[in-house]
Amino acid sequence: MISSDITNMSLSNSSDLLQAMEDLDMPEQSTVISLLRQISSRLERLELDNELLLERTGLTVTRTAPKSNCVFCSVEENKDSHYSSRCCTFADPVFRTVQASKLGLCLKCLKPSHGEDDCKVVCGGCGLGHNQLLCHSKRPYFPNKRPRN
Fold first, then answer.
1. CA 108 – CA 122 distance, rounded (Å)
2. For the whole model, what pTM was predicted?
3. Of 5, 55, 96, 147, which is most buried, counting CB atoms within 10 Å of its CB?
4. Do residues 51 and 65 touch, judged by C-beta distance below 8 A?
5. Is the separation of the CB atoms in 128 and 137 below 8 Å?
6. Does residue 86 sit within a domain?
7. Residue range 27-44, pLDDT digits in tens
8. CA 20 to CA 7: how far, in whole Å?
C-alpha cells in the first residue's frame, strides 16, 4: 500500500524515488507463499472441473449421436430410415446373420451389449435360439399358451 505522504511528494530526483520505494508496505514472504498456494489449489480444482466437464460433454455427444433404425445398416447406408425388418440391403436371413456376426451383435436379440449365453430370446417363427429376422425356417411355432375359454 502506498502511503499518502509518498503520493504527494515529488519524485523528480533519484533519492526521493528510493525513499518512496522503501516506504512502500511490502507483504512478507510467508504471505506471498500462502497466496500462491491458494491460487495453485484453485487452479488444480478448476483443471479437475474442466476435465469432468469435458468427459460429461463427450458422453452427451456420444449418447445423442444419430442412430440407424436398422441394426444391419449404418446411418449413412440407411438413407430411407427403414427398420431392420424392412432392410433391402440385407434382405435374406443368411446375409443378415453374416452382417450381425460382422457387427458383433447377439444373434438372439441383435444387440451389441452382451453374449448369446446371457440372452433368453427365442425366435418367434420357429422357437429356436436366434432372432426372428435371422430365421430361414418356415415352420410355425406356437409357444405354450393357455387355451382360451
1. 6
2. 0.51
3. 96
4. no
5. yes
6. no
7. 788 888 999 999 999 999
8. 9
Domain boundary pick from 46, 63, 80:
63
pLDDT digits (tens, 9 = 90+) for 29-84: 888 899 999 999 999 999 999 998 888 877 666 667 788 999 999 999 999 999 99
Domain boundaries, position 145: 91-149
* Residue 53 sits in the same domain as residue 97: no
Domain check: are 59 and 98 in the same one? no
CB 107 within 8 Å of CB 97: yes
Residues 46, 98, single domain; the answer is no
Q: Which residues, other chains included, contact 143 with Cβ-Cβ below 8 Å and sequence gap of 6+?
A: 127
Give the cell for residue 113.
451389449
In angstroms, the CA 9 to CA 16 distance is: 8
Residue 69, in any domain of the structure:
no
CB 133 within 8 A of CB 85: yes
